[in-house]
Amino acid sequence: MAALSTAVALVMLCLKVAENPATRHHLWILAGMIAASFAIELVYRGVTGRAIRLIRKTHASGGEKA
Question: What are phi and psi of 47, to 5 degrees?
Fold first, then answer.
């Protein structure tokens, strides 16, 4: 729910900024910040060798207790 609310707020903000010709170029700054964030994350993942896993691996329990 929080992610959806944030996405809606971001879209509304972008629409408001785009309406005003004097501030329309600010959308490029936002796009650049988002692109830089993804680029930094990709470089970090490449350097550290970490991968994003969408599904968590769970260990199957064999019924034995350690």
Answer: -70, -45
Comparing CA positions, the residue from 52, 32, 53 lying closest to residue 42 is 52
> What CA–CA distance (Å, rounded) separates 59 from 50?
20
* 20 DSSP 8-state letter: S
Confirm if 45 and 52 have CB atoms less than 8 A apart: yes
Question: Which pTM was predicted?
Answer: 0.61
- Per-residue confidence (pLDDT) for residue 56, from 0 to 100: 74
Nearest C-alpha neighbor of 13 from the set 22, 59, 23, 3: 23
